[in-house]
């Protein structure tokens, strides 16, 4: 692939990561609003567990999608580093592989933290 094609693919991959975050954000906003308004206080345990499962499944599916985009981003970084005579933008992107890999680790930590806080908000702890 050419440098231009790889940069275009890089931008598409970044867009996928960003847009993959929209669905869980909406689910978390809904859970936050319901929790803040006290609806979970009155809900049955079944309803609370259902809400928690919806949050977990949404997060898991989003993480899987983000990991796919992260793997693609890492591959693009590797390919760009092999292209001879690249421009400054391509060099910056090629040097971003460690940052892209770190993003994958941060996503896992953030997912766990969000799930714990969602559990605490739903069950009133």
Give keywords.
single chain; mainly alpha; Topoisomerase I, Chain A, domain 4; 6 helices
How does this structure look, described?
This protein is mainly α and 125 residues long. It has a single domain, classed as Topoisomerase I, Chain A, domain 4 (Orthogonal Bundle), CATH 1.10.132. The protein contains 6 helices and no strands. The longest helix is centred in the middle third of the chain and has 38 residues, at 45-82. It is elongated. The model has no long low-confidence stretch (mean pLDDT 89).
Beta-strand content bin: under 5%
Number of helices: 6
Mean pLDDT: 89
Q: What is the total number of structural domains?
A: 1
By DSSP, the count of extended strands is: 0
C-alpha end-to-end distance: 53 Å
- Taken from the alpha-carbon principal axes, the silhouette is elongated
Low-confidence parts lasting 5 or more residues at pLDDT below 50? none
Structural class: mainly alpha
Q: Whole-number radius of gyration? A: 19 Å
Order of helices and strands: HHHHHH
Task: Please identify the top-level CATH class.
Answer: Mainly Alpha
Query: Helix share of residues?
Result: over 70%
List the helices and strands and how they pair.
Layout: H1 3-20, H2 22-36, H3 39-42, H4 45-82, H5 88-94, H6 97-123
Helix pairs in contact: 1-4, 2-4, 4-5, 4-6
Care to give the gist of this entry?
This protein has one domain: Topoisomerase I, Chain A, domain 4 (Orthogonal Bundle).
């Amino acid at each position: 692939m050419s440098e231009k094609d790889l940069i275009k693919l890089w931008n598409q991959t970044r867009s996928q990561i960003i847009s993959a975050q929209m669905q869980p954000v909406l689910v978390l906003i809904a859970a936050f609003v319901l929790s803040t308004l006290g609806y979970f206080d009155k809900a049955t345990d079944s309803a609370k567990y259902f809400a928690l499962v919806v949050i977990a499944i949404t997060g898991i599916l989003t993480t899987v999608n983000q990991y796919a985009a992260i793997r693609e981003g890492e591959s693009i970084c590797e390919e760009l580093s092999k292209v001879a005579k690249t421009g400054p933008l391509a060099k910056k992107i090629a040097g971003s592989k460690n940052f892209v890999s770190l993003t994958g680790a941060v996503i896992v930590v953030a997912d766990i933290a969000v799930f714990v806080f969602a559990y605490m908000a739903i069950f009133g702890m």
